[in-house]
Amino acid sequence: MIDQLLHGNVGFVTGEFKPNAEYYGSIAAQQRPKVLWIGCSDSRVSEDVITGSKPGTMFVHRNVANIVAFNDVNVSAILEYAMVHLRIEDIVVCGHTRCGGIAAIEDGVRENYIADWLCIATGAKEAADRIAQERGLSREQKLEVLTEENVKLQIKHLKNLALIKNMLATGPLPRIHGWLYRVETGTIDVIIDGRQAAASPGLTALA
Ligand SMILES: [Zn+2]
Asked: How far is the centre of ligand 1, averaged over its atoms, from the C-alpha of 126 (Å)?
């Protein structure tokens, strides 16, 4: 597999990098990403590939189940760099179907660190439990609802971090978007459209 990766790099250099030398030269001088992507570590959810983006488009933070934790110095440092230095205006929190982290939230998990981490999404499970009971959902339907509720919860966490809270108190930025990527079809559903929220600050405040 490692040989395949290095061989793939040779193909990237000849097929993509060299034919677009001007673009890659410009981002080599300085990156100017337009979006901060907060996604899952899952190998099937490669943000550049699934959005048809070139390197240089997105600043990226990925972890198990695309979680935003208030005490995670990693995500805080990434947010500060993205907002203060890169002046990124859009943040995408993207969950995905068939997520192992989401299934572990639903089923419970024995491993200590994974359980501690997924604890941060407990509120999403409570909401999904309620919705599944009301609507009589199948397991697969419920996991999808839980994935969506988790994206909404992590956006709530994001908005509660002091850096983002202070920014949103004084203006419409950053626009925060919640997406669901479907690994079965390759398509993205918009759960929360940050463009609309930014246009209606009153509604954002109520959310
Ligand atoms: Zn996942």
From this structure: 19
Average pLDDT over residues 165-185: 97
Span 52-64, pLDDT tens digits: 999 999 999 999 9
Cβ atoms of 191 and 146 closer than 8 Å: no
- Regarding pTM above 0.90, the answer is yes
Structural contact between residues 102 and 143, judged by C-beta atoms closer than 8 angstroms = yes
> What is the CA(164)–ligand 1 centre distance, in A?
24
| Contact by Cβ (8 Å): 35, 58 | yes
Q: In what order do the strands lie in the sheet with 188-192?
A: 58-63, 35-40, 90-96, 175-181, 188-192
Q: How far is the CA of 42 from the centre of ligand 1 (A)?
A: 5
**134 C-alpha to ligand 1 centroid (Å):** 26
pLDDT in tens, 87-123: 999 999 999 999 999 999 999 988 899 999 999 999 9
Domains of the chain: 1-30 (no CATH), 31-206 (3.40.1050.10)
